[in-house]
Amino acid sequence: MRRTVFNEDHEAFRETIRAFIAAEVVPVYDEWFAAGQAPRDFYLKLGELGVFGIEVDEEYGGAGIDSHKYEAVIYEETARAGVSFGGSGVHTLLGLPYIKMLATDEQKKRWLPKFATGEEMWALAMTEPGTGSDVAGMKTTAKLSEDGTHYVLNGSKTFITGGVHADRVIVCARTAAPREDDRRFGISLFAVDTKSEGYSVGRKLDKLGLKVSDTAELAFVDVKVPVGDLMGEENKGFGYLGTNLASERWGIAFGAYAQAAAAVRFAKEYVQDRTVFGKTVASFQNTKFELAACQAEVDAAQAVADRALEALDAGELTAAEAASAKLFCTEVAHRVIDRCLQLHGGYGFMNEYPIARLYADNRVNRIYGGTSEVMKSIIAKSMGL
């Protein structure tokens, strides 16, 4: 399908990433899958390759490119190979936008050079046990000390992607009680050093899918956070979170489209090789019709994902547009991957086949970053309903 979203630079980057995946990831991916996470030194390799520094300003060691298109290439290439880069996606998609938007010059000098090299991995800790999508209902607190030098952080978080390997985590916490007319007031963001006393990583969660992405529970017991690690203004954190939700939801949408495209590729290759009743599975009309229908859905999802990417790069992606892209692409991926697994027969249920892992990995796309039901609510509100 003809596309205009990528140029020669993006395609050159694609070749670099594809070669890197073939050399550094594919040969050891089964080991990562069994271990339940990518090794920490892998992130240093990504840093050395320049992946983490693409959108970091040149003065801090990055390339200074203000675009998400290189991230999009990575989504496509990891899906194509049936692998992932572990929990590193949150480092760039979730961590970097908050640093660029909120950090002072002094904070950027401290944080960004090691961010770009992978020496300091970042994660975002928003969700809490029992609150789910209700961010305003969080219970974690950060109270300013009497001498005003630090905050004292207490509480817990769950479902934190990248939480096991993270060196610094953006923690959302209450610095003031909610107002009667605004329960979102009183939330602040902190860049917490994971080596701090009282900070602990609980269980590495055993998930249905995304087995190579480390996801953890975090706990804070009287953790001292220097006032210099407050991000942005006190009590305005909820607004900051809302600002970056559009880019997060674009990432999920684009990743889902890429997974659907990969599923069609895996199924096509399988049915061309697999023989039943003396004929290839690909030769049956039902197979052709199923794959044709899946390809049509992937083409539509690609157009939606690309349009959202262009809008995001232009700074014009609205909350409703991001919600619509996420809803559509994740629902398409759900249908397409399920049908492609069916074409594998019994082998589609075996984890040694990438389609099985893809099926499990894809399921969370309709949950995290806001459930499909939340996306529908956002879209309906934008329609005046």
TrEMBL record:
Domain Acyl-CoA oxidase/dehydrogenase middle: 123-223
One Pfam family, short name: Acyl-CoA_dh_N
Lineage top rank: taxon: Bacteria
Annotated ranges, domain Acyl-CoA dehydrogenase/oxidase C-terminal: 235-383
InterPro entries assigned: Acyl-CoA_DH_CS, Acyl-CoA_Oxase/DH_mid-dom, Acyl-CoA_Oxase/DH_mid-dom_sf, AcylCo_DH-like_C, AcylCo_DH/oxidase_C, AcylCoA_DH/ox_N, AcylCoA_DH/ox_N_sf, AcylCoA_DH/oxidase_NM_dom_sf
Coiled-coil region: none
Cofactor(s) of this protein: FAD
Keyword Flavoprotein: yes
Keywords: FAD, Flavoprotein, Oxidoreductase
Name of this protein: Acyl-CoA dehydrogenase
Entry similarity comment: Belongs to the acyl-CoA dehydrogenase family.
Record has RNA-binding as a keyword: no
Annotated Acyl-CoA dehydrogenase/oxidase N-terminal domain residues: 7-119
